[in-house]
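yo

u said u wanted the structure for the complex thing, so here. seqs first:
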Amino acid sequence: MISGQNSDIAQRLVEQSELADIHEKVVAGQRISREDGLRLFESQDLLTIGFLANLVRQRRHGQQTYWVYNQHINYSNICINGCRFCAFSRKLGEEGGFFLAVDQIADKVRQRLHEPITEIHVVGGCHPDLPFSYYLDLVRVIKEIRPEATVKAFTAVEVAHLAQKEGIAISEVLLALKKAGVEALPGGGAEVFSNRVRQLLCPEKLNGKGWLEVAKEAHQLGMRSNATLLYGHLETAAERVDHILALRKAQDETGGFITFIPLAFQSANTNISGLQPRTGFADLKTIALSRLLLDNFAHIKAYWIMLGAKMAQVALHFGADDLDGTVMEERIGHMAGASSAEALTPEELQSLIRAAGHEPVQRDTFFNPVHREN
Ligand code: V47
Ligand code: SF4
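structre next:
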């Protein structure tokens, strides 16, 4: 954190910068516009952008940075969609495809029963054949073994896929999942809402409008959800801004989003080639811009799996207030070449946060503090 004399100097520099008018809005707590967002993306003044985002972050969360004790489970990577940016998925029958039966999922949960996990995050591909009863049984078995953990499961894309496959309404799928024990949806599948990008990269997938409708419907039924942006591929700065603003509008309508997660694209083993490598500048600017534009989102997550632990730590001074969690087993980023570890212990997460000058706060899925014995 900047403090005392340094803070005054930083303040004066910002007031003299090309972004002084946006600084005024941020200080006054005013909403910043699409044009402001575009100017911020075009600006190379990363430290001023970070200073502005950090003002908002500090106002909301002070020195607190959140982390969660969680377990990721991917039930299957078999998927009908074949998004060009995805190294995780396989077609049915293709080498490398996998599927976990309900009792294998139960084993994964049981194996870690000695750990104080508070969230189980479950996602997979859009499988062509699995019956709806499989998804409900999967959730029920997790809740049976670990009743105290929150099940955060199935993206809006998986929910829409189930509705289509079963020939039932989205609300019916959501209500059945909720009854089985799902309390929140992960934020995946949003990618970039732009039709142009979706036509190029994931034309088979639920479109942006459909994704927002599922999320809003979940909120109306009393479920919460996260939201993501997949950045660092073919999207333009304007498409990033418009994606974030579509989420801001949806959040104005329902208030149901918990956190926003910019996902840094990992390119290995994907069908997108010839890109310039993603830069640290782009990572920090995207985090900061998200914090500044999403004035109605309480939290911005620096997902260390995609960013790498070191960049995620720096992002805590550029608008992010959450590092996600222990994870333990991660396939989506690692099959696409992520060089981060697959797991961080609670001690490692907390020491990353402390080394950034912040106070670690263990949270549950909904950002309620979790009090630990040790
Ligand atoms: O929707 C796919 C993304 C998402 C790649 O809600 C890729 O707390 C980077 O949504 N490089 C799934 N990203 C993961 C996800 C998520 C992860 C952690 C926490 C939460 C949460 C949600 O992964 C997909 C897609 O956008 N993805 N391929 C790739 N090559
Ligand atoms: Fe399937 Fe999701 Fe991968 Fe797209 S990103 S191919 S929907 S698993």
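Residues 4-58 form one domain. The pocket of V47 (ligand 1) is lined by residues 85-87, 123, 155, 186-189, 191, 226, 228, 230, 261, 263, 265-266, 270, 303, 306, 324, 332-333, 336 (CB under 6 Å).
cya
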